[in-house]
Structure formats: structure tokens, C-alpha cells
Amino acid sequence: MESSIYSVVAFYGLALTILGAATLVVFVRNIVHSVLFLAVTFVAMAGLFLLLDADFIAAVQVLVYAGAVCIMVVFGIMLIQRADMKATNLFNKQLLAGGGLVALVVALCAVLAGRTAWTELVTAQEVPANTVQFIGTLLLSKYVIPFEVAALLLLVALVGAIVIARDEEVKANARD
Amino acid sequence: MLENLFVGIADWLRSLLGGLGTPGEINEAIVMLAKLVAILVFILVNALWLVYMERKVAAYMQARIGPNRVGPKGLLQTTADIGKLISKEIVIPKKADVVVFLLAPVLIFVPTLMVFAVIPFGKNMAAIDMNIGVFYLLAIASLSTLFFWMGGWASNSKYSLIGSMRVVAQMVSYELPLVLGLLGVVMIVGSLKMSDIIAAQEHTWFIFTQPIAFLIYFIAAVAETNRTPFDLVEGESEIIAGPYTEYGGMAFAMFFLAEYANIMVICAMATIMFLGGWHAPFGLDFIPSWVWFFLKMYILIFIVMQFRWTYPRIRVDQLMGFGWKVLVPLALANIFITGIGMKIYQAIGW
């Protein structure tokens, strides 16, 4: 990341957008608005990746998170439609457990951030202009096992979804 | 002279700004802005022209004349229509989610406009020639589903909700064969850059080496833009106008114009990926490259319009079945065969 005034302004603008939108995802009481703010968060995060010259990852972020994950939530909302959407994303009483979990995550992030040698990362060699080929080669050589495991996991999830859906269908046919 | 008309204008602007003595960074930013504004104006004017073209094509197919009163040959008809739509009130339903309801028709144009930034309209005529051009286009285009859904959901009406459910289901289902269809071409070229893909088609267009991919892409793309025979989303006889039911005036027109801009995107994409982009066929390169690009694009747009007036609408179950049981397996088979074919060619040393 270059440290010109433009990138600094862009970074802080994006960071503010991400934090603001992510806070609103939690605090807004209508779950539909939560999804829309979630999409804003994802797109702003793609902007952060662009600042780091990782254009491929930025596009993946938009395609997978803003374009697909949000749509999955949308499906959920439409399948469980309620008459009143105004109070669908409320607070519960699990303050202690939630607070503990958040504290753990923050602590973990702090430890990891403290251990990372930031100055070395910044002065490392320049980002290659074309990252797609490198990512592809790495995925199918060094990281081929995790890659295949992820593929298998997705396949299992897909088959599981079909089994659950078919079960309903068989029951519905039996009732008729 | 004509060949470099638009590139020449950009160079002239750059040298003009260079003479003013402003910093180079700002000059480049201004030139980029000028390019993007030019594309913006072009898209909006062209969307108007496409509405007129659609009405004329429909009219001739039904043995009518079509719009012929406003302006020469009725050319100003859509301009007059837009004037009327702008002057109309935008009615907001009582129980609508007002902010989301009003944001949807504004945002619906954003992905479409962003996509045009990477499309090369002619030799050296892409505003930005991105490394991941094709992938960028697909990623940004996938966002428009969310905006259609926003409009339909926020209207708080039965027809709109059913329409927006159909939008989401249809666009998600057909995005897969669309991407898989393009993958065959990307495999052969080995690059996602638009200029590389066009350069690879200098001698043979990919429609000849990847005919199945072209068909899969084109069918899926027509479904992505919600055009007949895949226009269940706005099936007038069932759900009035789907997600746009509650919209009136210019808010409705924005959805309408976005549809035509999207048709332009998919046809431009088909031209780039399968029809050789701006390359001239049969060595007829005394005609400027951008003329060839637009010629190919408009022929494809004409075919899309012809679909609308010659095919009946299909049912929802047929739509899903066709997408998942025909197009996706066919696209996967195409990728498999392309991979084997490439390996064989490499083995025999072509």
C-alpha cells in the first residue's frame, strides 16, 4: 500500500464505513435493513482489498459475500416472512456470554496483531501486477489438500440440503 | 482518421490539460472522468434508442408501423415519454419501507454503469483495461440481484414480493451457467484481461471453437436480464410488473432503462468473448474497429428483441429445470472437453 494522501484518506473513509455499517447491522431492529448494511460492509471491505492492490480478492469479496452471502440471507428472510418486520433483529438476554465471546475475539486479534512484524510486511517486495495466476497455482499445488477438503465440505452440504428437501417431499406425497 | 476518432479526442484532452500546467495526477483523473462521463451519456442515450428500437421491431413483427409521430420516423418518441415520466409524481405506498423503496431505482443503475468502465468499445477504447476484467464484470453484475430485491421487498405488496422472489431465484440460478460458459473461453486464452481475450481472436472467433459455450452464455444472459422467454419476474398476466408494480413515473423508468442497459452489457460481453470484439471479419479493417464492435453488438441486441416477440413465456418449474438440469451439466461438460482438447493440442504441438 502506497502512503500517498489519497490512499490514507481512502483507508480512513473505508474503515469508517465498515465500522459504521457493521455496527448498524447489529443495532438496526429490522433484519432487512441489517442485510443491506451487511452488503455495504462487504463492498467497503472489497475497497480495502483494492487499496492493497489485491484486485482479484476484492472481486471475490464482492461476488461471494455481497453477491451470494447476502442473497442467501435474503432467501431466509423471504421464506420466514412475518407480518411485522419492524422487530425481527432484537436483543436477547445473553449479555454475559456475548460479552465474553467478544472479549475473547478482541484479545485474540490483539495478540495476533502484536506478534505480526508490520514493518517487514510493508517493506516486502512489490505486489505482482497479475495475482490470479499465482493464486491459482498455489491453490492447486501447495494448498491442494485444504482446497479439496473445502470442495468436499461444500459437496456434503449440497447433498445434505437435497436429502432434507427430498424428505419433506416424500412426507408431503405420503399425506396426499 | 475515423479509426482513432475517440482515442484522438482523449489524447487532445490530455495535451490540452498538459498545456495548462496542472499536476499530472490530476490531469489523468480529469481524462478518466471525461471518459466515464462520455460512457454514461452514451448509455443513457442508447437506452432511449433501444426502447425505440424494441417498439419498432415489435411493430414490424406484428405488421404494425410503431411510433411514427414524434420527430422523424418517431425517433423522438422515447424522449417525449421520458419527459412525461419525469413530470409524473412518484407515488409511495403507505406501508412501504420509504428509504429502501426510493434507493432501489437509484442503485439499480450503479452495477450496470460500473461494468461499462472495462468494456473495450474499439481498439484501445476501454476506459480501464483491468487485469481481471471479465471477473470484475461478473462480480459487479451479481450485485444487481440485491437491488431488484430491494425494490420488490420495500414496496410491501404481494405482487412485488412474488416478483422479487422470482428475481432472486432466477438470477442466482442462471448466474452459474453464465459463468461456467465463459470459463471455456478464459481457459483457452489463459487470461481474464479483455484486451488479451480480443487479441486471441484475431484469426478465429471463439464462437467457432466454443459454439456450445456461446449458446449457454447467451441463453443464461437473456435469463439474467429477465427478458422473454424468461420474463417470469415481470409476467404481466400473473403479477402485473413484478418488483416494479408499485413504482411510477421516473422511478419506474429507471428500472426500465436499466433493463435495456443490461441487455447492452450482455450483448457487448458476448461480442467481446465470442465474436472477436472489435476485430474486423474478412480483413475489412478499413471500417473503424468501433463500428464493427457496435455492429456486432446491435445484431445480438436485435436477436434478443426477436426472442421477445417470437417465444412464449416458460413456466417457473421449466425455468429452474432447464437451468439446473440442462445448462449447468452442459457447461460443465464443455469445460471438461475444452480442457482435454487443450491438452491434446499441446501434446501434438500446435
Description:
Chain B: NDH-1 is composed of 14 different subunits. Subunits NuoA, H, J, K, L, M, N constitute the membrane sector of the complex. The complex is a heterodimer of chains A (176) and B (350). Chain A has 176 residues and is mainly alpha-helical. Chain A has 2 domains: 138 residues, NADH-ubiquinone/plastoquinone oxidoreductase chain 6, subunit NuoJ (Four Helix Bundle (Hemerythrin (Met), subunit A), Up-down Bundle), CATH 1.20.120; 34 residues. In chain A, 78% of the residues lie in helices and 0% in strands. The N and C termini of chain A lie far apart (64 Å). With 350 residues, chain B is mostly helical. Chain B has one domain. Helices cover 69% and strands 0% of the residues of chain B. Chain B contains 15 helices and no strands. Chain B is globular, with a radius of gyration of 21 Å. Chain B starts with a helix and ends with a helix. Chains A and B meet through α2 and α3 of A and α6, α7 and α8 of B.
Compact summary:
The complex is a heterodimer of chains A (176) and B (350). Chain A is mostly helical and 176 residues long.
What are the SSEs and their pairings?
The complex is a heterodimer of chains A (176) and B (350).
Chain A: H1 5-27, H2 31-51, H3 55-79, H4 95-115, H5 118-123, H6 131-139, H7 144-175
Helix pairs in contact in A: 1-2, 2-3
Chain B: H1 5-20, H2 24-61, H3 77-87, H4 98-107, H5 109-116, H6 133-141, H7 144-154, H8 158-189, H9 194-199, H10 206-209, H11 211-224, H12 236-239, H13 249-274, H14 289-310, H15 316-347
| Oligomeric state | heterodimer
Helices of chain A, by number, come to 7
| Chain pair with largest interface | A-B, 25 and 23 residues
Helical fraction of chain A:
over 70%
Q: What is the tally of beta strands of chain A?
A: 0
GO molecular function (chain A): NADH dehydrogenase (ubiquinone) activity; quinone binding
Family (chain A): Belongs to the complex I subunit 6 family.
EC number (chain A): 7.1.1.-
Pfam families (chain A): Oxidored_q3 (PF00499)
